[in-house]
Amino acid sequence: MTAVRLRVLMEPRHGARYEEILALALATEEAGFDAFFRSDHLMGVDPNDPDYRPTECWTTLGGLARDTSRVRLGALVTAATFREPGLLAAIVASVDEMSGGRAELGLGTGWYEREHHAFGIPFPPRRERFDRMEEQLAVITGLWAGPGFSFAGTHYRVADNRTPPRPTQSPHPPVIVGGSGPRRTPAIAARYATEFNAALTLGGGAAALRERFANFARACEAIGRDPAGARRSAVLPVACGATPAETERRAAVIGSDLMRSNAAIGSPAEVTERIGELAEAGADTVYLHVYDIHDLDHIALIGAEVLPHVAPTRTGAPA
User: Fold this and answer.
1) CA-CA distances (angstroms) from residue 302 to 232, 240, 267, 315?
2) How far apart are CA 142 and CA 281, in angstroms?
3) pTM listed for this prediction
4) Domain segments of the chain: what residues?
5) Other Cβ atoms within 10 Å of 278 Cβ, number
6) Contact 139/159 with Cβ under 8 angstroms?
7) Predicted pLDDT at 318
8) Biased composition, Pro residues: where in the chain (predicted)?
9) Cα distance between residue 308 and residue 299, in whole Å
10) In the chain, which residues have pLDDT < 70?
11) Selecting from 2.30.30.100, 3.20.20.30, 1.10.357.10, 3.90.1150.10, what CATH number does the domain 5-310 have?
12) 313 and 39 in contact (C-beta within 8 Å)?
């Protein structure tokens, strides 16, 4: 099997305290995974869940930057509606410096309208959200490029910034953009992204993944970029067990029928096979989407029985 960069993506069903997030991140690091990512949400899928505990994504990533030592850290994905681009550029650069150059920025349009209303965050129409995300990427990468950056867009303006945020990584932290759309998302990713994420959790299996990667490649070629220079990734919900009962217990936590239908559910060998299918479709990076953040044995099992077969060398930096 072609080696795949294997990462853990945390999206707890009921939110989390920082100590719980840290425990999962440390388990991820100990198990040998490449990176620990978290979602950027202030509300769970059930807006009426009284047990949901929100945490601010980049604040916790700043804590993890100091409390972990090897795994790369990021958000999949940060909503462009949540933060102004200049502030986000400074936040990510701060986490990058705090972590010794381990931060990555995943940026999306934002989609959860009820969440925005519940926290007093404006939620523009879809086209405007795409416009804002594209302008944000121009501002963020422009500021990271160095002093003297200016930008005049429809939604954001930057006037001759002489003191931009300075990330540790050169030229800047990796930028991840992705989605299932056939045109605008690949075009934006081709222009700005280090990594294109094909969002496998939206369905379609390996065939859809291959098609989305092809759309991205065409978008790269249209602007004269070599698509081979970009990473390609997918998100895969996972429930791995040493026994059928253990597998089913973990699968039940996934909850959503849509997520379960696209998940890797089974023994370590079956999960390894599913990851191999994504690799055959073109993915070089797979984010294993976990929901029970207290099940540290789940992380340890995948690290011991799956990871050695898909990513035989431990890496602390992106290719």
Assistant:
1) 22, 7, 10, 17
2) 33
3) 0.94
4) 5-310
5) 26
6) no
7) 42
8) 164-174
9) 13
10) 1, 200-204, 255, 312-319
11) 3.20.20.30
12) no
